[in-house]
Structure formats: structure tokens, C-alpha cells
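Minutes, project check-in

Agenda point 3 was the complex the collaborators sent over. CS summarized: four entities, 416 residues total, and the question is how they sit relative to each other. Sequences were read into the notes so everyone works from the same version.
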Amino acid sequence: MTPLRILLVDDHPVVRAGMRALLTSRDGLDVVGEAASGEQALDLVAAERPDVVLMDLRLGAGMDGAKATAAIVARPDPPRVVVLTTYDTDTDILRAVEAGASGYLLKDSDPEVLVSAVWAASRGETVLNPDVAQRLYRRIRSPRVDLSARETEIVSLVARGLSNRAIAKELFVTEATVKSHLVHVFSKLGVDSRTAAVAAARERGLID
Amino acid sequence: MTPLRILLVDDHPVVRAGMRALLTSRDGLDVVGEAASGEQALDLVAAERPDVVLMDLRLGAGMDGAKATAAIVARPDPPRVVVLTTYDTDTDILRAVEAGASGYLLKDSDPEVLVSAVWAASRGETVLNPDVAQRLYRRIRSPRVDLSARETEIVSLVARGLSNRAIAKELFVTEATVKSHLVHVFSKLGVDSRTAAVAAARERGLID
DNA sequence: TCCCCGGTCAATCGAAAGTTGGATTCCGGC
DNA sequence: GCCGGAATCCAACTTTCGATTGACCGGGGA
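CS then shared the predicted structure for the full assembly.
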């Protein structure tokens, strides 16, 4: 049987070396490339046609892991993409899953788990870390809120500590308008103050 | 010449494998142990007596990297500790340096940089990532602010979105007291609103 | 010892923030 | 076409926040 062809995507050389070391010591697994950025990952997917891509979500500057994942699975006859990351915030997970990832693992997973996840992904199965699965479940139950572009913009400025007046000046509207947007934000997030809105928006990954 | 004895400390198996792979391929370097926690690191330092410890700052549950570093350098004839981490917030850096770290590198550093940093540390030199050095410099110039325990507690609650009244209830004090603390926080951070205080405290790593 | 600092509280006042209600525009569906 | 909904905008009103001043207590360090 031909070995499974694997592409590693991570902006940290140390992590790439670690994945390579953990995977190449296994029979039937072949690391055919390493990419340090999303752009490079796309090139290597086209050139090497791997079976499985191990993808970090945070890739420093440029395209992030979720975007790169989406671009990869949009290709004809795409490889499976398994996300392997340190972060487990709701939004990160949701974005990765929406982008079409076949798995979501945390970097503190056991090497065994990692290897079996790669195999499972190659068979078309979906592999989720238990914590991650639980978060996803919670998220699906609670209705998805999304703020309009304007609202997000304003909450971001609030989070930076600007007053309504300062925000109004920044966006060339009146203070009343800023307040009005904030009222809508408050109701969408189920809070009743700017600080709580920032906390809620941050928790749901709507800002930052 | 006897090889340099190195101990790896990181809670992520992948990262440990990566460091091991990058270091063991070099002449004169010998990885003598791996620890997944601060407690384990202390044991292994005592048992293996390494020359250099590569230490992650975030170690999951239990003792964090800064504490572990401090405990290690407090030993008789201690090894050099080089911090190797993903995070580069001001507080992390400062805590590591204060704990007695001989170096501070980011995980996106080149393997070459990593290797030469290990050698430099073994010779007693201090190795700082340029970004890190710059942050340290900025930090030293701007007078160090630190909030009292009570003040930090209150800012954290503000960051969670609580009103003064709610904070007062939470801490069993009156609203006047909360306001009084916030006045001090505002003046220490150079801001004039609760949201700006949260932003400033977050930026300086005083909360979260 | 005395003084300073951290934590506690009170009263007041002006300035933000938050509430209510309403206007306009744009867009997709019946 | 017409309607409903959502996004953006605005103004007047009420509440909370923040500034200011002043006070009390307890625990260290000079």
C-alpha cells in the first residue's frame, strides 16, 4: 500500500519539526512538504497533492488557517484538512469547521491521537477533540448572533476604550448614532453596558 | 569536549518533539530529558543536571514557566534557562526576565537562532529576540505601573462587564469603595473611563 | 514612634452612558 | 408594486459613572 502523503502547515519551525518527527517515525506516513504560510500551503497542495494537510490556525501575517483551509477544500479532489492548533476559542473552532476542516485537534494532544486522527481523516472520518466537540455543541444550541459591520466597528472602538463622543468623531456621525448602534449591540448580545458588550463580543470572537 | 546537556520543558508533545528534532541533529547537543510540567521540570533538573533548560511559559495547569524558571535558577549551580514561547506580551517577558531567564525566544524563530541561543546561554550570555528586547526597553522607559491586588480584582470584574453596583455586591463593599478604587486605577493607567482602563490593563498584561 | 499607603466609606455635581422613540434608505419576498 | 425587516442615522430624556473632597482604620517601613 502506498504511504499516506502529508503536508504540514505551521508558521513555527519548531512545531513543524515536531510534527514531522512524530509522523515520519510511523509506518505508512510520509511527510511530503512543509509550509510556513497559507499561500505557501496552497502552492504545495497543488504541487505535491497530499492526502492529508495538518493545518495551524494562526499563521502569523497573511492568510490565516481557516482561509487557507477553505481555499484548499475548494480545490478539485481536495486533501483532507486536519486543524492542529493551540487555541480552542469558540470562533476559531467554528471558523475551521465552517471552512471544511475534517478534524480539530489541540497541540497538547498525545502523539497517538494525532497519528490516528490523520488516518481517520484519510478515511473521510471527522475527528474532534472532546473539548472541541463540546464547545461546538454548546455553540449550536445558542443562536448564532452576528453584528453588522457598523456595529462591529463601533464595539471594536469601545473595546479600545474610546468614549461615544470620540467614536462619533472617528466615524463622522453624531453621538446619538453611536448610542443607537450600541443599543442594538446590547440587545443582540443580551447585555446592558458597553463593558459587558466588549466582554461578550470578545468571548464570542466577534472582535479581536 | 562533552556535549551540552539540554532539558526540554513544554506541555505540548508536538513542540517537545520539534525541539528535540531540531537540537539532536546538531553536534555537541544532547537532549537529556523532557518535562511536560513545571513540577516535572524541577525533578528532572535535579536528576539530570542539564546545562541548559528550554522552557515554555505556558504549561497548562499547575506551575507556570516563570515560576518554574525562578525555582530552577534558585538551585545551587543552576542550569541556564532559555524561555521559548509563543507569547510576547510585556508582562510575560518581564516575568521571565525577572525570574532569571538567560534568554527569551519566540517559537517562530529560525532553528539556527534557537541553536545559537542555546550555545550562547551555556556560555552565560543573554539572548533576546529583537522584538522582545524592544519591548523590554519600552517597558523600562515607561514607569512600571502595578495595581494593588484589590485594584486588579476590580478591573477584572469591570472587564467582565459588571457595573459598579454589581462589583460592590460581589466584593461585599459599597459602591463608593468601588469608585474609589477605580479612581486610583484610572490615574495609574492614565485613562478616564472604565472601558479605557480595561483596554490599558489588558495591553499591559495586568489582567487576563 | 510616626507617617504613609491600601482599603474602606460618604456627599455632591457635572458629564458620560443608556433608554425611548422616531426617521430614512435599501433589499428581498409575496 | 408593496410590504417587512434590517441597517443606519438622529434627538430628548433618565440613570449611571467619574471627579472631587474629605474622612477613618490598620499595618508596615523610615
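Noted in discussion: Residues 163-165, 179, 182-183, 186, 192-194 of chain B lie near DNA strand D (CB under 10 Å from a C1').
Follow-up: revisit at the next meeting once the mutant set is ready.
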